[in-house]
Structure formats: structure tokens, C-alpha cells
Backbone:
């Protein structure tokens, strides 16, 4: 680090720059500088300085997912986007919101809820409820979505427009605030899940959906993945239109719980849930936002297993819904397969675990995503062997296995993203070179160490 670079960075962002400390570290790398821009112009100026001085740059929102992905090849400058925290405009009549990248998702949800609306992306939390709240920028960078994806699509499907700053300091905009406007829409999709390697997002425009008046749940337990698949198919095909369908297996020999949620009016969701439960001999739990527990159908064959919490919070047996089976300190693995292969993938997790003398959970969604977790105290070589065995089993199902995050000792032994087709990797490399030819932005964080 040099005084000249520090002074140039300070000039670019009105003096809001500090030296990095261990608290700013990204996967163990301590940055030389931390700058807090307050405008697109600041971001552009900082990136120009970084480009000219050869600094690698990592954008940071709430910092909740900086431990995800591979260790970057460099991290000299952190762009702290916390000052980009405004909800720029909520056009509730059009069900569209424009929001800055540093806005925390809980604050955005509170703002939208006043108008009875939401951004229908339920980013999973950890089982121990830590590191739960990220920002809009982090949501786009990681592209992670939870069970609501079954009905509303992923982050990229709800993103109507985006403003970003390229590595050379050029501001680019794509899309717009009208739902039917598709101009430049591919740029938003390209940025989603890119881990900050293509540009620094400063604001985004999202399509919104109404908040449901009530939610009802159907839960059924079965002994094996094949039975879980039958129940999940029955729920999806029941004509009751479930909002989410998920599976949870706490351990390799444990039974599997299949749960479906139904959203809408209190009376409507209760009736739909009871009809769906009849198809799987399941149990019904009604969790309305505004009461109305009496709308559970009287005389139904299915059992009401829990009364709604007065505050509308989820209660047993669905405490696991919408969470990763892990804390942020262990190894979290995501398996993605075609939805029809979900039961086979869940069994693949169990087989790989047994082969390595592990007992791991598996939690999946009907969209074809399973998360499994290994505790931080597990021997790193055993974890690496488990990941390799799981990849071998899933690859034959047209699936992929990604290590979302892991302790440093595990990172050194596994390819976090896993193998990628040469043609696909070449395409990603060309895109990276087009957007960031000098590889300044989050170098090494993406597939193939891009």
C-alpha cells in the first residue's frame, strides 16, 4: 500500500477510505483499503483508480456472503456499498420497486409490506439463524433463492432493470421500470450469480407480488426418497397449486418430511391445504397472517397439527422450511439436478455420506436443488472425499455439485465450483474478458477461477 494510492482513493470518494483490517478480510485475505462510495460517480472514480493502480476489487454489502465461493486471487480494495441504502422508488400501483444495491433485504421487505407487497425471493437462512440478512447487491451477486422459486422464479426472473459500473469506471444501465420492457434484460441475468466478477451493481429494479393474507401447510413423512418423490408429485399435481414443495431429511437413515405451502386468502388456503393433504394422507397446519384459524375445514381427514402463532411465525413441524441445514462455519454443499432426479440426488447424498462415515442432512426443493452440510469439526480430507463421491454420483443425473462455503482447510482440498464443460468455461472466460479484461473485479471467485 502507498500513500499516493490512499490519497487518490480518498479523493475519489470524498475522503471515505480507511486501511483494511482483519475484520474486513475476505476468506482470510486482508484488503489494503476499504472505500465507502456514496454515488455512482464515486464508484466509477474508485474503479478507475483501481484499474490504473492495478488493485483487485471486491464489492461488499452487509458482508453476509463474503465467505462464499473460492478464495479470491487478490483483494486489495473493498468497496463498502452500505451508503447505497435507499429505496429509490416504490411504484406500488405498477408493483415495481427501484432500490439501491446496499439496501438490506429486511428493510426493503418492511417498506414493501406497508403496501401489502413483497419481493418474492426468500433467501434461505441458516439453521442457527446467523448471517441471515443480506443486501440487494448480494442477492444479485449470489443469485440464491429459496423455496418460493417454484412459483415466482429465481432472482434473475424478477429483475427488470439494473445499473452497474464496469471495471473501467463506465456506468451501464439495462432494462427499465416497466414490466414489459425487455431492453437490455440479458445484462441483469448475466450479472445474477456472477459473484461480483463482471461489474459493481449500484441499483436494481424488481417486479413485486402481493403479500398473501394467509399461508397453510401440508406435511407428510415417508421412509425413503422414492416415497418422498411420490408425495411431492401428488402435491404438485393435486390441482391445489402449492406455492412451495420441499423435502427435509435430518440424517442419512432418517425419514423424509415433504412439506407444501399454499398462499392466498385465509379461507381459500385452508380448504386447498385440506384437499391436498387428502391426496397424501398428510397433516395440515394453518399459519394465517391475520388470524382466521376457524377456516380449517371441519371434518377433514387430515389433522390440524399446529394452531397459528399469534404473530404469524412458522411453528412446528416446519421450523426447517426456508433454511440451510448448517451454520456459516461448516461446509455447505448445493446439488442441482433436474426436478425429476431430486429423489435420486437425495439418495446420492446419503450414499456419499455412508461411504465416508458421515451422517449429514439433506434439504431439497422441488425446483431441483438440495443442500447438505458437514460440520466444521469434520476432518478436511473426509469432507473432500465426500464432495468427490457426491459429484461422481450426481454427474450421471445431469447435475452439478457446488461447495457454497467451507472452512479454509477444506477450501484448499476442493474445487468449490466443480468441473465445468470446456465449451461453457470458454464462453464464461470470453464474457469475463469483455467486461473486465484486466480481471480486477473479484478475481478467482467464479467458475474456473475467473
Residues:
Amino acid at each position: 500500500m502507498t500513500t499516493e494510492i490512499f490519497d487518490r482513493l480518498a479523493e475519489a470518494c470524498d475522503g471515505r477510505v480507511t486501511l483494511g483490517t482483519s475484520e474486513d478480510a475476505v476468506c482470510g485475505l486482508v484488503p489494503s483499503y476499504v472505500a465507502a462510495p456514496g454515488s455512482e460517480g464515486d464508484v466509477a472514480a474508485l474503479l478507475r483508480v483501481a484499474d490504473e493502480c492495478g488493485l483487485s476489487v471486491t464489492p461488499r454489502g452487509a458482508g453476509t456472503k463474503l465467505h462464499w465461493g473460492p478464495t479470491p486471487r487478490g483483494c486489495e480494495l473493498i468497496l463498502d456499498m452500505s451508503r447505497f441504502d435507499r429505496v429509490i422508488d416504490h411504484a406500488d400501483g405498477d408493483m415495481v420497486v427501484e432500490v439501491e444495491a446496499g439496501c438490506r433485504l429486511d428493510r426493503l421487505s418492511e417498506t414493501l409490506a406497508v403496501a401489502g407487497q413483497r419481493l418474492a425471493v426468500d433467501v434461505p437462512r441458516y439453521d442457527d439463524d446467523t448471517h441471515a440478512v443480506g443486501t440487494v447487491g448480494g442477492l444479485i451477486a449470489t443469485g440464491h433463492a429459496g423455496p418460493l422459486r417454484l412459483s415466482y422464479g429465481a432472482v434473475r426472473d424478477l429483475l427488470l432493470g439494473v445499473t452497474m459500473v464496469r471495471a473501467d469506471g463506465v456506468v451501464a444501465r439495462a432494462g427499465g421500470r416497466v414490466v414489459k420492457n425487455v431492453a437490455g434484460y440479458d445484462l441483469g441475468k448475466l450479472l445474477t450469480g456472477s459473484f461480483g466478477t463482471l461489474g459493481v451493481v449500484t441499483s436494481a429494479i424488481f417486479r413485486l407480488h402481493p403479500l398473501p393474507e394467509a399461508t397453510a401447510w401440508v406435511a407428510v413423512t415417508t421412509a425413503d426418497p422414492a416415497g418422498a418423490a411420490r408425495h411431492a408429485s401428488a402435491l404438485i399435481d393435486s390441482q391445489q397449486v402449492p406455492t412451495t414443495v420441499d423435502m427435509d431429511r435430518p440424517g442419512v437413515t432418517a425419514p423424509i418430511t415433504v412439506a407444501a405451502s399454499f398462499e392466498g386468502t385465509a379461507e381459500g388456503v385452508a380448504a386447498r391445504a385440506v384437499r391436498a393433504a387428502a391426496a397424501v394422507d398428510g397433516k395440515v397446519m394453518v399459519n394465517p397472517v391475520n388470524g382466521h384459524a376457524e377456516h380449517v375445514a371441519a371434518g377433514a381427514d387430515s389433522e390440524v397439527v399446529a394452531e397459528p402463532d399469534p404473530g404469524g411465525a412458522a411453528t412446528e413441524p416446519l421450523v426447517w422450511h426456508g433454511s440451510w441445514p448448517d451454520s456459516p462455519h461448516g461446509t455447505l454443499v448445493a446439488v442441482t439436478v433436474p426436478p425429476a432426479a431430486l429423489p435420486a440426488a437425495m439418495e446420492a447424498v446419503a450414499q456419499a455420506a455412508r461411504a465416508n462415515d458421515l451422517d449429514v442432512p439433506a434439504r431439497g426443493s422441488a425446483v431441483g436443488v438440495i443442500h447438505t452440510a458437514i460440520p466444521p469439526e469434520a476432518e478436511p480430507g473426509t469432507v473432500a472425499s465426500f464432495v468427490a463421491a457426491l459429484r461422481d454420483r450426481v454427474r450421471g443425473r445431469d447435475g452439478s455439485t457446488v461447495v457454497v462455503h467451507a472452512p479454509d482447510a477444506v477450501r484448499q482440498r476442493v474445487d468449490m465450483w466443480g468441473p465445468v464443460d470446456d465449451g461453457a468455461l470458454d464462453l464464461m472466460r470470453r464474457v469475463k474478458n469483455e467486461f473486465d479484461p484486466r480481471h480486477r473485479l473479484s478475481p478467482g471467485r467464479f467458475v474456473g477461477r475467473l
